[in-house]
Design brief:
Alpha-Beta Plaits; four-stranded antiparallel sheet; seven-stranded parallel sheet; alpha+beta; 35 strands
Length: 676
Amino acid sequence: MSEKYYSLGTHTKEQWAELHAELIADGNTYESVPTRQVTVEDEKLHSPTRGSYLLTDEEAKALKADPRVKFINIDYMKYPETYAPPPDEIYATPPKLINRYSGTVKVYREFQDSNNLNSSHVNRTGYQIWRCMQKLDPWVANGYADNFVADVQLQQLGSGKDVDVIVADDGAGWIGHPEFQNNCTDAPAPADYVGGNLLPGNGTCDLLDLVLDAPYYLDPDYFNANSASRLTTRFDGTTVPVESVARSWWTNSAARSAKFQSFGTVSSLTSSYTRSNCNGSNSSYPPFSVTRHATPCCALTFGRTQGWAYNANKWVLNLYGGYGSGIETGFDLQKLFHMMKPVNPEYGNKNPTVSSNSWGYRANKSPGGTYYYHFRGGSATAYSTESGISWLSHMGTQGDSGRWKSEMKTNSMTTALDELIESGVIFVCAAGNSNQKQTNYGHADYNNYIATNATDTLEESTFYEFSTEVTGTTNRRGFPQQGGKYTKSDGTIDYKTINIGALDDDFKTSKEAKVSYSDRGEGIDCYVPADGTLAANVYYAPEGNYPSTYPGFTANTGSGAGVAEDTGFGGTSAACPVAAGFISTVLEHNRDWTYKEIKQWIRSLDNQDASNFYTGTESTTVNTSNWTDYESLEGGEPKVLYQANIDRRTRKGKRRLFSRGVQINNANIRIKKNKS
């Protein structure tokens, strides 16, 4: 085949020097490098990481798989009539909308007596999927009632392929639920559903535990060196580490291959972090305390019928629940996983990592006695109960009086989170369920606070949550929402977490709205469907139990034991995994994006139209009646996460942000090797 001029780049100058030497040598035996001596068109002495070479298309494809190669593309300037792009832009083919299923799907927004989930409706999902496929709420836009069951074809731009997604929760969830199995035939899987997991055996369960399973993925040489004592077979046929060996791998650097001994360890892991306690199987489930919240969160992130990222690499972590790792250790585990995981040879870089976190801290600001509320720099207002101060009495809607999120003071846990985010992990978090107004730096309410003395400054105000010091701030992000807080070059303050609010399944004055309990304000990055989302369930019924999408599957018998059900799951706990799954589908096409690009992309999405979305009026005084309007965004933007149907281009330096969720980077247009 004829040769063409190709531009090639590597990640480092050392890699380019090495690869360049191999290309110009004759008789190479490396799989990705041509055996012949390659002609150098331009060595580009001005650049330490790129050059131009004469290659066949087959040779270019082989080189693309070399982990040293950052990009390889046609040298456009050599072919002005054929390959040259327009002078001001370099376009890539945007991802195509794919039909999630071959036919239509029943999409439920509400579960009422008149339209209760029917066991015959096995091809079904919740509104978290269809809603985020377009800018406008389809129920509102089409004049449907909020209990209308739509029968539609679902189309999405990505499935989370080659993205590592971690659900870090109060448990690891019941991985035996059929929503996570690839051998269930009662309901159709998405048309392009891959199934399986990253470990040998590639069993019938898609989920892997970060503590118990990831060491084999990261360090196969160590486990294969003594497979008889270090490996076992999981319930679904997947080859996994022996539990004690896996825990030791994280805590003892000597219990690893040499190349991983310098990465550091976690201090300890409880011996109770076991598969039976944290994961279960298809015939038994772990204790109720570690399944009831984590299981639906997993389903909404990457469940085969209920999640956006159904083709992601699916990881679970029992972070803070019974038998869990603990929060600080859990942060370290995720950071180490991201740092140590291998380069994906198909792309020449590591898979992106997304962490979904449906939890948060709140501190008691009314433990008894008199307290002082400082509002917008005015004189302190004394209170012993919240009544009489409108903001205090109407901030929360869940009957949890006196407890609000406040900025946590710096400690080892906050530092571990900052390090996790700095390592490159995309940290998605639930905004919270207190209807609390969260503001950004510079807002008039940013420095509002509560103190035990009228003369205490904000810095002096201190409260405690689980013996952890927090400030008295009332309108800032709490923990972990405050993760990655940093001061920008212009002196303003920003955050590196993706902070998610919740949409209601009910309408307000015939408009879409945030749900009453969801936190609000300009500190919320975006809102996604949450209240009443259809999610996998283990005998946990905040909004009722419903026949599973897989009616023929019952894992166990007895009083609620192991019965695979669905439920209406809500809270910002539901919004967070929906957003994490959705963001994973964006990262599928934008693998080098950091938190910054994700936030820029979200901001580039059009706000909702006032005629379709309820925004309310921002409160500017302590006692305005506006505080009782729980659906009000309190000055925040009506920003809903969606995949747009347009190709509006917004230039951001070298990056092009598309409302479709497509990013084009001049340096990363690559020839992708097709999988067989």
